[in-house]
Write a structure and sequence with these properties.
Blueprint lengths: L12 H29 L6 H9 L4 H16 L5 H27 L1 E6 L11 H4 L3 E6 L5 H4 L7 E2 L1 H26 L4
Antiparallel strand pairs: 1-2, 2-3
Helix pairs in contact: 1-2, 1-3, 1-7, 3-4, 4-7
Length: 188
Amino acid sequence: MSDASVLALDPHPDITFRAVGVALTQWELLEEQFAYLYSIFTRRPYRVDAIEEFGKDGRITRERIAKLKTVGEGFLFGKFNQAWDFTFRDDVIAPAVGLTARRHQIAHGVVTSIGTPSNPDPKPGEWSALNDKLVFGLCYPRYAHARLYQRGDPFMYGSAEILETAAKFAALRIVTEKFANELSAPPS
């Protein structure tokens, strides 16, 4: 995402809110696949106790991914399957680690506006017609700026950038699901 994305903001706050909802839902679906993968790694494939165990202790996303990495490496050690090792390391864990910061920014961001409203007190549904000088996007709350901002990030994200990130979450979910299915398939 480039600094130019500051200009790609939304004309209505609902557009941004919808994009945030899509992105967070895609992330949760991805984490569900991580939980399924965890259940396979703990030799309790798709069992509820293993799936719930994955999310029980790790309240922070990066802790859950570290837990998945540790358990996965233990499971794969001695399997002598380089393809599985590479898939897990390069196609599941590395992208997951890379996407956690963006997920964190989206989950903890706030939808706000910039610009000068032509009507400072609109009635519901009048945003577009009366506030044509406002644009909306997701930004970091001031109290969390130091924690959420990464060098080179734009100040605000519009729905296009948020949905682009949601698509990355969905793509990683598909890769993770395929990998889990391969691991849990009966030997041929």
